[in-house]
Design goal:
Layout: H1 3-19, E1 34-36, E2 53-55, E3 58-60, E4 64-66, H2 76-90, E5 93-95, H3 100-105, H4 113-118, E6 124-129, H5 138-149, E7 153-158, H6 160-165, H7 176-186, E8 191-195, H8 202-210, E9 215-217, H9 226-232, H10 236-243, H11 252-262, E10 268-270, H12 277-286, E11 290-293, H13 295-303, H14 305-324, H15 331-334, E12 339-341
Parallel strand pairs: 4-5, 4-11, 5-6, 6-7, 7-8, 8-9, 9-10, 10-11
Antiparallel strand pairs: 1-12, 2-3
Helix pairs in contact: 2-13, 2-14, 9-10, 12-14, 13-14
GO biological process, one term: isoprenoid biosynthetic process
Cofactor: NADPH; Mg(2+); FMN
Protein name: Isopentenyl-diphosphate delta-isomerase
């Protein structure tokens, strides 16, 4: 791997996502199609609404995940420190960005043991691309990704469309499912699989669970479109290729509904276009166990730990109020409140 080129690409990713709407998916995440039935007499204390939950063996104060954002450029060290400290303060989960640069070159970018020291009690998810598992040392790199940050689980991200658009991307995906199966058999922590913004379908999800995957992040369409991100940093030809996929993908809400119906007992993470705590509440009601947010958090992550904490405190309070005004005193109750589909 060319460390400098990979680092520049990750820097470009941060700048492009921070720049605004030009890389937002043209697919609606699907949550506006659903509406809670308001409960005017909740018979609850708002302060007593319990948002706590357990996911992959860790207790969380709220069902929230700071989703993967950065992958190793120099400034990601500060970003990762802010995110880790905020996750610890909030009692929520943290998923790091791709560790490919860190495991292949040693340029950690904040993805080392210091991350776990900053967040000793959080559900911490390591991250590696599925295509990297095909390398001869793919399984060893996966183990190193987990060990270098003391992670509780490893996220394998599926990004075939992004790689197809990216100049020099990984285009041969033959054998990826077999590699994931071998990883699930041999890795000492659970394996989670996620998309990167185009969604997981029920047939793909079933295949993944059958091969031993412990949890799934739908990472649906409705947030950042990574084909457009690669197009924004590429040549005219790359931009033209990417433009055709601006409205590609499975909306996040649809993916959650489909996966929960297909796999009733598998932990599901909803990410992709989550705007606020009401969207988070809808995702949980539709079947998610955990709700992730990335791009909407990046500006705060660049700023400070306090900014990240403030951002997620608002999101958690919105979720708490949504539960309160549907008459749900805890998450299990929220999963049973009335929700109507608005066409």
């Amino acid at each position: 791997m060319d460390e400098n080129a990979a680092g520049r690409r990750k820097e470009d990713h941060i700048d492009i996502v921070l720049s605004g709407d030009r890389v937002a998916s043209r697919v609606d995440a699907g949550f506006d199609r659903w509406r809670f039935v308001h409960c005017a007499l909740p018979e609850l204390s708002l302060d007593a609404v319990d948002l706590s939950t357990s996911v992959l063996g860790r207790r969380l104060k709220a069902p929230l995940l700071i989703s993967a954002m950065t992958g190793g450029p120099a400034r990601s060290e500060a970003i990762n420190a802010h995110l880790a400290e905020a996750a610890q303060a909030l009692g929520i989960a943290l998923g790091v960005g791709s560790q490919r640069i860190a495991v292949e070159t040693g340029a950690a970018g904040g993805l080392g043991g210091d991350l776990r020291r900053r967040a000793p009690n959080v559900l911490l998810l390591a991250n590696l691309g599925a295509a990297q598992l095909l390398a001869a040392d793919g399984r060893d790199n996966a183990r190193r990704a987990v060990e270098m940050i003391g992670a509780d689980a490893l996220v394998i991200h599926l990004n075939p469309l992004q790689e197809a658009i990216q100049e020099g991307g990984d285009r041969d995906w033959r054998g990826v499912l077999h590699a994931i199966t071998g990883l699930c058999t041999n890795l000492h922590v659970p394996v989670v699989v996620k998309e990167v913004g185009f969604g997981l379908s029920a047939p793909v999800a079933r295949r993944l669970v059958k091969c031993g995957v412990a949890a799934l992040d739908v990472a649906g369409a409705g947030g950042t479109n990574w084909a457009l991100v690669e197009g924004a940093r590429g040549t005219g030809r790359t931009q033209a290729l990417a433009a055709a996929f601006a409205d590609w993908g499975i909306p996040t809400a649809d993916a959650v509904v489909d996966l929960r119906a297909a796999l009733p007992d598998v932990p599901i993470i909803a990410s992709g276009g989550i705007r606020d705590g009401v969207d988070a509440a809808k995702a949980i009601r539709l079947g998610a166990d955990l709700v992730g947010q990335a791009a909407a958090t990046l500006k705060a992550a660049v700023t400070s730990t306090e900014a990240v904490v403030a951002h997620f405190e608002v999101l958690a309070e919105q979720l708490r109020i949504a539960a309160f005004v549907t008459g749900a005193g805890h998450l299990e109750a929220l999963r049973g409140v009335p929700l109507v589909e608005v066409r």
